[in-house]
Amino acid sequence: MASRSLALLLLAGLACAGVMGQPSELLNQLGAATPGSLTTAIYFPEHPTKQFPAGDVITAVISAHNDASKAYNLTAIVASLNSPMDFNMYIQNFTHQVYFKELPAGQEVSLEYKFRIAPQVPTRDFSVAVHLVYEDVGNPSFFSSTVFNGTVEVVEKPRLVDTEGISMLMMIAGSFGLIAYWVFSNAGDKFGMKKAAGKKKVRAEAVAFDEDEWVKGTPYDVDKRRRAAAASKGTKQ
Q: In whole angstroms, what is the distance from residue 46 CA to residue 74 CA?
């Protein structure tokens, strides 16, 4: 119980240090990992190339193997985003995660740690530091082991819908439409398509409708001739 209370006080100190932007001040007060105590490794399953999109939640899987002959209590994981030029210049302190997981001698365990890079962080290289805080179960003293301290690339978060790409495609399609219309219009003038249409129209107007030709030889033609002859006789009398 006393060990748990000390751990809570430690985490409260880490939280305050994170707000002040100087978590290393408290981490430096912890004992360095004793050689032969813990072997740690880290893996980013969703971002193995260490390209972290700004605004995305990054998952890290941390494995710890107890090489000592005594048990340790894995207390918490703390991490930060630092300037690649100056490690002491903190850009962002990530939320610490508490575990209180006992690791017996000779055993191995994996811990999942999630952090999120702020969306406003510019896209370029940064340094990320991840520390595992643990304690000696038999003798409540805290230690800090650096699990990861390397360069990562902060990249732009992928967009679900590329509005710029859609707008560009619409502009290209509109441009092709205008070009096709211009080519068709000029091709009509060049190859005489409009003149040919004009000639056909004039020819159609020149053809007159000949009614006698259409009714020639029909009963209507015979009756028409009789009526014309009768009218002619009446005129002569």
A: 24
Q: In which residue are the tokens 């994170």 written?
A: 18
**Predicted local confidence at residue 178, as pLDDT:** 75
Identify the band that residue 153 occupies on the pLDDT scale cut at 50, 70 and 90: very high
- What's the confidence (pLDDT) of residue 1? 47
Predicted local confidence at residue 56, as pLDDT: 94
Contact status, residue 172 vs residue 106, Cβ threshold 8 Å:
no
DSSP string, 72-114: EEEEEEEEEEE-SS-TTSEEEEPPPEEEEEEE-TT-EEEEEEE
CB atoms near residue 184 (< 10 Å): 10
Could you write out the three-class secondary structure of 194-235?
HHHHHHHHHHHHHCCCCHHHHHCCCHHHHHHHHHHHHHHHHH
Q: What is the DSSP letter of 160?
A: S
* Region of 82 on the Ramachandran plot (φ > 0 left; ψ -120 to 50 alpha; else beta): beta
Determine contact, residues 73/44, Cβ cutoff 8 Å: no
- pLDDT digits 0-9 by tens, 85-102: 887 888 999 988 999 999
Q: For residues 128 and 81, is the Cβ–Cβ distance under 8 A?
A: yes
Q: What is the pTM of this model?
A: 0.60
